[in-house]
């Protein structure tokens, strides 16, 4: 009798478990954003498959990537000797590991690589949609905007740029941070930097968020984890040709070719390549970051300087103010996307693949402005139009700059928000 009762109870538990599993799907679909996200993933997967099958591949950097990887796999550790038909290697070591794996899987052939990048596109889109669903900013129908870029589809599956891997990892880092997994987020963030340096545009707002959310031990250990990633990945080059590696892979002073620039094409080339123009943009970048940090991100702490003083004081006290805090998902996303967008506005040169650096943040940023919906959509379509003018010209670059400045003004005009959900200790693994 006891055995029979036990079996009956087990069967009931199994039926309840199965019923719960089946009831989960209707619950998910009741949320229009979740349903829209799933539909977009399915439709975009079909679209990407169609693009790979029927749209001709465009040869740009793939052969250069494969040449640089072949040199690395052949035993070369001097970064100045790792070259392709577009010039010497200028990306950190993570790039070599990623494209070495791609070369191993695909044999260096383009078509299987396109399939891999198609899968990467869907993974990245899924992570971005997760961020959008978890942050209650856009209406459900506006999620479709993240799938509407002709240029971004091309960047992923027709050009095979390393920007795709860097931004997928960056979005994964953001998703981890949204769940308060700061250490994991910093490790993934560092991995993204190891593929392409543009990810560092997110570093200033990320540092502000860390100061707001973590105690001093958490900040030090998270930064140490990020630094360790760079050391481990770069170790083969750091122990053999450290100066060559650091100077090539982390060169912040490179001058891009004026012809390929999508922005500032209206600037005469002698001025465009001048050091004075670069320094002016850097100053503008730093000033804008300081203004947003003071008047927006640290507004509720009395401004940037007051916030820094309070944090330094709290690190040496035992009061509750020194405990980690849980930040709002919307605040985290807004701060990181705005910080990156400021860097985009002040970038001297934006090449076509650089659109992937901020395209996925555009709908979010637009819905963070006080603009009416019709203007938001107009600005989105205007930016997309500028990025699809080839080659870019003075008119398209002036229009792009104007659109960027309008969006930036809208972000500045929006009301600052309280960053914290509540003050409480985080779990042990996030301290």
Automatic annotation (TrEMBL):
GO terms for molecular function: dol-P-Man:Man(5)GlcNAc(2)-PP-Dol alpha-1,3-mannosyltransferase activity. It is found in: Endoplasmic reticulum membrane. Its main location: endoplasmic reticulum. It catalyses: an alpha-D-Man-(1->2)-alpha-D-Man-(1->2)-alpha-D-Man-(1->3)-[alpha-D-Man-(1->6)]-beta-D-Man-(1->4)-beta-D-GlcNAc-(1->4)-alpha-D-GlcNAc-diphospho-di-trans,poly-cis-dolichol + a di-trans,poly-cis-dolichyl beta-D-mannosyl phosphate = an alpha-D-Man-(1->2)-alpha-D-Man-(1->2)-alpha-D-Man-(1->3)-[alpha-D-Man-(1->3)-alpha-D-Man-(1->6)]-beta-D-Man-(1->4)-beta-D-GlcNAc-(1->4)-alpha-D-GlcNAc-diphospho-di-trans,poly-cis-dolichol + a di-trans,poly-cis-dolichyl phosphate + H(+). Signal peptide: none annotated. Pathway: Protein modification; protein glycosylation. The keyword Transmembrane applies. Keywords: Endoplasmic reticulum, Glycosyltransferase, Membrane, Transferase, Transmembrane, Transmembrane helix. It is an enzyme of class 2 (transferase). Pfam families: ALG3. Its EC number is 2.4.1.258. GO terms for cellular component: endoplasmic reticulum membrane. The chain crosses the membrane at residues 35-57, 89-106, 113-133, 153-172, 184-204, 216-239, 277-295, 331-351, 371-390, 397-415. InterPro entries: Glycosyltransferase_ALG3. It is a multi-pass membrane protein. PANTHER family: DOL-P-MAN:MAN(5)GLCNAC(2)-PP-DOL ALPHA-1,3-MANNOSYLTRANSFERASE (PTHR12646:SF0), NOT56 - RELATED (PTHR12646). This is dolichyl-P-Man:Man5GlcNAc2-PP-dolichol alpha-1,3-mannosyltransferase. It comes from Theobroma cacao.
């Amino acid at each position: 009798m006891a055995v029979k009762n036990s079996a009956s109870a087990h069967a009931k538990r199994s039926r309840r478990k199965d019923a719960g599993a089946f009831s989960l799907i209707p619950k998910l679909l009741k949320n229009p954003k979740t349903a829209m996200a799933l539909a977009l993933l399915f439709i975009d997967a079909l679209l990407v498959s169609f693009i790979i099958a029927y749209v001709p591949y465009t040869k740009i950097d793939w052969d250069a990537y494969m040449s640089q990887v072949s040199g690395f796999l052949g035993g070369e550790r001097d970064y100045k000797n790792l070259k392709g038909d577009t010039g010497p290697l200028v990306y950190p070591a993570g790039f070599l590991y990623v494209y070495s794996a791609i070369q191993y899987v695909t044999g260096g052939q383009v078509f299987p690589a396109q399939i891999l990048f198609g899968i990467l596109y869907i993974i990245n889109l899924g992570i971005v949609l997760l961020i959008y669903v978890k942050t209650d900013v856009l209406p459900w129908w506006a999620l479709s905007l993240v799938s509407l870029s002709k240029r971004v589809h091309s960047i992923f599956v027709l050009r095979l740029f390393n920007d795709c891997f860097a931004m997928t990892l960056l979005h994964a880092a953001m998703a981890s941070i949204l769940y308060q997994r700061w250490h994991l987020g910093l490790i993934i963030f560092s991995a993204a930097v190891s593929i392409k340096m543009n990810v560092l545009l997110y570093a200033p707002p990320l540092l502000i968020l860390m100061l707001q959310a973590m105690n001093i031990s958490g900040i030090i250990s998270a930064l140490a984890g990020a630094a360790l990633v760079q050391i481990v990945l770069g170790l083969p080059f750091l122990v053999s040709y450290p100066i060559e590696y650091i100077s090539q892979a982390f060169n912040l002073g490179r001058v891009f070719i004026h012809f390929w620039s999508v922005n500032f094409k209206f600037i005469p080339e002698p001025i465009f390549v001048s050091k004075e123009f670069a320094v002016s943009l850097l100053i503008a970048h730093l000033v804008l970051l300081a203004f947003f940090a003071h008047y927006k991100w640290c507004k509720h702490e009395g401004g940037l300087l007051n916030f820094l003083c309070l944090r330094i004081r709290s690190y040496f006290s035992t009061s509750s103010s020194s405990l980690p805090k849980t930040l709002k998902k919307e605040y985290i996303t807004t701060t990181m996307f705005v910080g990156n967008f400021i860097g985009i506005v002040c970038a001297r040169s934006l090449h076509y693949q650089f659109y992937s650096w901020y395209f996925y943040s555009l709908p979010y940023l637009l819905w963070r402005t006080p603009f009416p919906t019709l203007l938001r959509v107009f600005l989105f379509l205007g930016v997309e139009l500028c990025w699809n003018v080839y080659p870019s010209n003075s008119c398209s670059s002036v229009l792009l700059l104007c659109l960027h400045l309008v969006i930036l003004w809208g972000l500045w005009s929006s009301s600052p928000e309280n960053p914290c959900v509540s003050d409480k200790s985080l779990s042990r693994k996030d301290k």
